[in-house]
Amino acid sequence: SGRTAGAAIVVRATTDGTVIERNLIVDSTCGIAVGLTDEPSDYARQGERAYDHAGGVVRNNVVVNLNRWADEGIEANAARDTRIEHNTVLVDGSTPWSISIRFPASDALIRNNLTNHRIFLRDGGRASLDGNVTSARRSWFVDAPRADLHLSTDGRPAIDAGVPIADVTDDFDRTARPAGRAPDAGAFEVSVLRPGRSARGR
Fold first, then answer.
1. In the prediction, which pLDDT does 110 show?
2. Average pLDDT over residues 80-84
3. What DSSP character marks residue 11?
4. How many CB atoms lie within 10 A of CB 47?
């Protein structure tokens, strides 16, 4: 009917404490949605009226969509106490942001993500941001068209760009963090970068 599909992973209707980790999402209109709406849900738990999700963690995920119809990679909507950390998002559609926090009920801690567009606070959403790199290009990755978003030699700006997070001690590949002076931004921690090869950790 001319409408695009929604996110590949959706948690909503006052779900609580969801952990979304180590997913590779390729060519989905949107990657991950924590909460969907600020309107009361017919399925809300215990009559909750203010939030669509609470206490979620989104970490060590890879979202890639290089099609013109791509939307944002990660969104939090009416989601309180959300953590979005160490994700790699490469989306090349017309939406000018990669991650968004939407509606006054939303508050998030957004740290150490690697994206090619900005992080956007929409319609009253609130967030604390630290250690994010939002200027990534396709050349920063080993093979973006094939969804290999390990860092290439051009991806040095993401190395040691993050801030320490006590309970995030490994990456998408279960490589220990940090491998250098500080954690790398994004889903992959690396120690040695090699041109034309997948640059993995120790």
1. 97
2. 94
3. E
4. 7
Q: Which residues pair with 62 in a beta bridge?
A: 24, 88
Q: For the residues 15-42, what does the mean pLDDT come to? A: 86
For residue 194, give the H/E element and its range.
none
Q: Which amino acid is at 22?
A: R
Residue with the two structure tokens 């017919």: 42
- Beta-carbon contacts of 47 under 8 Å, excluding residues fewer than 6 positions away, are none
Sign of CA dihedral 96, 98, 104, 109: negative
- Tokens representing residue 21 in the block: 């980790």
> Residue 53 and residue 185: Cα distance in Å, rounded?
26
Radius of gyration of the chain measured on its C-alpha atoms: 16
Whether the pLDDT of residue 48 is over 70: the answer is: no
- Residue from 90, 68, 72, 67 nearest 149 by CA: 90
Q: Chain centroid to CA 180: how far?
A: 22
pLDDT of residue 196: 52
The three-class DSSP label of residue 156 is: helix
Q: Computed from CA positions of residues 158, 63, 51, 45, in that sequence, does the dihedral angle turn out positive or negative?
A: negative
Could you give the 3-state DSSP secondary structure of residue 146?
A: helix
Question: Is the CB of residue 173 less than 8 Å from the CB of residue 201?
Answer: yes
